[in-house]
Amino acid sequence: MRIKKSLDMKYRLTIRIDTDLEQLLERYCQRTGESKSTFVRRAIRNHLEKESFRDLRRQLIPYAKSIGWITDQNVFDNIS
After folding, report:
1. Is the pTM of this model over 0.90?
2. Distances (CA, A) of 71 to 4, 11, 66, 77
3. For the chain, how far is it from start to end, CA to CA, in angstroms?
């Protein structure tokens, strides 16, 4: 999946984080040069993409079981 970058930042999200998380975020951003906003946008996008994949996987499990694919290894064996 290709992610289209957009400079159209119309919305602002304000969150509260504890001191420990803020310090971790600050150290990471200082070390990498990435802004906090960029990091948080990337983290949200990554999380939502993973959840989308998990949702799709849950939807496909009944079909996979119906054709005898019970484990991930069954899938790998059949498509490799």
Report:
1. no
2. 34, 42, 12, 10
3. 21
